[in-house]
Amino acid sequence: MLQVIAETFAPLLSLFLFILGAGFFSTLLALVMTLNGASPIMIGALTGVFYAGLVSGSFRIERFITRVGHIRAFSAFSSTLAITCLLHGLFYNPWFWMVLRFIAGFASAGLFVVIESWLLCKSTTVNRGQVLALYMITFYAGQSLGQFFLNLGDPQTMLLFSITSMLCSLSIIPLSMTHVRSPQYDEPSTLSFKKLISISASGVLGCFISGLIMGSTYGLMPSFLSQAFHSNAAVAKYMFAIIIGGMLLQYPVGKLSDIFERRLVLIVISSAAILTSLAILLINHQIGWLFFLLMVCFGGLTFTLYPISITQACEALDTTDLVAGTQSLLLMYSIGAMVGPLIAPAFIEFFGERGLFVYFITVCAMAIPILILRKAQKPALPQEENFVSMPQTSPILFELDPRGEENGEVN
């Protein structure tokens, strides 16, 4: 394990610094737009545009990285992000911000591909699970801790934008101080989307539902918290609660999915998310400890939908189809993450500030009958795949999945 840490320390430190800044930047933008009176649909659209850039970059950036090299590519993408962060602070214009967020999404995809392909190069069938675990810890630690930067200054000044820009620039240093070898990629298989749906409709649906929820959580939750508590510190605290809940419940919920049929676990998680959202709607938000606990539960439940859906789909995929299949599943998540922030504002307009949780309840309630129907129609396959937790970043990460390499090592 110590050898794995030593070999992956530099790229993981670069990832941590990048996520530390980027993790709270989306919260910051939503907060600034709320303070400037932007409509929920405009705030949601900003999130959707970012995911559009992320999808575009995830599937088109590898050739560029191969041509210029990992370190140069990482430096270019980090510098691009640093510039876009400063431009957000210098000019407040939602339409201009949308252009910047698309560029930021594209550049973020490039950063993820660089880091993940570096880790893929360093991993083997023996330690790939450990490498992925370190990746997950680094990712969620940076994302959760970064929320507290919101407490350092007024969101409407340049300070917080400058901090994000500096962290993006700092992330270049660790990776640039180490030697990086480009990984050797196998020729990917082709798996039609129609075939994927026929193989695992539940996995496809779960990824789409996860995108609908997570895109709206990252894009609109800061606005909800700002209106509910009128405090930047409260926004940071409860966004931290959601993300840390997602990190803490990954393993126990994943362990349950290794014991019980995964479609049943998806049904239970969706039902529990409905109950948690109802509780958030009904309780007095001023009971701080209870609201914090419910937000931890909400994050823990919703963050596990995606990896369990991926794992459920992997049960029916051949090893050679794993990367191609999971790329399609990532695309379904990203489509949901683009569409969700555009639909959720309609619920907010109709139900008021708590309409966001009415939206979450509606999404989960629509998914449950379909999952039950699929469970009844198609018998469960033997659960040969163990749950592996993963964030929604780039398709390269799926090659780190220890389920996708049964013969030989990746170098």
TrEMBL record:
Residues 199-411 form the Major facilitator superfamily (MFS) profile domain. Keywords: Membrane, Transmembrane, Transmembrane helix. One of its GO terms (molecular function) is transmembrane transporter activity. Coiled coil: none annotated. The chain crosses the membrane at residues 12-35, 41-61, 73-92, 98-120, 132-150, 156-175, 196-215, 235-252, 264-283, 289-308, 329-348, 354-373. The keyword Transmembrane applies. Pfam families: MFS_1 (PF07690). One of its GO terms (cellular component) is plasma membrane. SUPFAM superfamilies: MFS general substrate transporter. The keyword Membrane applies. This is MFS transporter. It comes from Legionella impletisoli.
